[in-house]
UniProtKB/TrEMBL annotation:
Protein name, per record: ATP synthase subunit a, chloroplastic
Highest taxon in the source lineage: Eukaryota
Gene name for this UniProt entry: atpI
InterPro entries found in the cross-reference section: ATP_syn_F0_a_bact/chloroplast, ATP_synth_F0_asu, ATP_synth_F0_asu_AS, F0_ATP_A_sf
GO molecular function: proton-transporting ATP synthase activity, rotational mechanism
Annotated Pfam families: ATP-synt_A (PF00119)
Role, per record: Key component of the proton channel; it plays a direct role in the translocation of protons across the membrane.
Annotated source species: Phaeodactylum tricornutum (strain CCAP 1055/1)
Entry similarity comment: Belongs to the ATPase A chain family.
Amino acid sequence: MYPEIFYSNTFTLLAEAEVGKHFYWNIAGFLVHGQVLAVMWFVILVLLIFSLLGTLNADRIPHDFQNFMEASVDFVTDIARDQLGESFYKEWIPFIGTLFFFIFGSNWAGAVIPWKLIELPEGELAAPTNDINTTVALALLTSFAYFYAGLSKKGLGYFKRYIEPLPLLLPINILEDFTKPLSLSFRLFGNVLADELTITVLTSLVPLVIPLPIMLLGVFAGSVQALIFSTLAAAYIAEALE
């Protein structure tokens, strides 16, 4: 294939790629993104099944799937312990663990499952984290969590942090609380969206051969993004508890 033809086809595919196109469900007067909600509940269902299998007939000495699930819980426990310390990590394991497993499952659902084989009247099935609304919601939950952590420990004295060490830093400290959820949401959304667009274009241009390594890289990147998001969430909560 001549280079000019290759680049022409690439630009054509990029121009035709649609981002953010959804079909909607009307639930109690609210419009929701149908495909995002469907894949999200699929991920939650898979996580629930894994949890049930891991706790069914649990023994003091782990075996089979119980051993795998306990190793997974130990992994998120280490994330919470490393960031929050021995004094606070236990009460935040459920929140940090839920963030990690949901983002991990969502990213893998987009990278591993061939959703594009399921044709929809409008839009297409993809990872829930491929939608900016999902990542913003996760980032806002993290913001609420670290505000709750700070207020529950220090009361209204938590807001003294905005004028420390100097009152002149008040605007910067306030701005910091806005940039945290923005960076969390756009980092996750941008990485997942870029990976899926890359795979879509490469699959259209060179089927079967070239996309496979990119898909494996997407699986790895999705795992890393789940780790980064949950680690940063734990770090923000630890900062509020200092």
